[in-house]
Amino acid sequence: MRLLSVGLVLVLAASAFGAPASGAEPVRGAAALAEKGAGKKRLSNAQIKKLLIEESIAAYDGNCPCPYSRASNGSRCGRRSAYSREGGESPLCFAADVTAEMVQAYRDGHPDE
Fold first, then answer.
1. Which residues contact 14 (CB under 8 A, 6 or more apart)?
2. Which of 70, 81, 83, 84 is deepest in the core (most CB within 10 A)?
3. pLDDT in tens for each of the 113 residues of the chain?
4. pTM of the complete model
5. Are residues 50 and 74 in the same domain?
C-alpha cells in the first residue's frame, strides 16, 4: 500500500512539473524510484512502543486512561486515571509499561514494518 502511495505521489509530482503522466516511461521510472525509496526501514523499539501506547489509549473507553491525560474539564487526570486505579483496566501509558515481548509480538504481526 505504501509503495503504491509513493508511486502515485511521484507520478503526480512529475506531471505537475511538466513531465507527461500518460507515457509509459515516467510511470515506470516513478515505480522504480518508489521501490528504491521505499526500502524496508525497520521501526525502532521506541517507535513500536509509542504505537502500542497510542493504540492502548485509543482503545480505552473513557477520558482518563493515563495520569497525564486531561479530564473533560481540562484538569490532569492524575490519580483519577484508569492507569492509577487498582482493579479495572490498565492501559499502556509509559514506555516502561511495554515489555520486550509486546514489541516482539508487534514485529511478528507486522513483518513489513
1. 21, 26, 29, 30
2. 83
3. 333 333 333 333 444 444 444 444 444 444 444 454 455 688 999 999 999 999 999 999 989 999 999 999 999 999 999 999 998 789 999 999 999 999 999 999 988 87
4. 0.62
5. yes
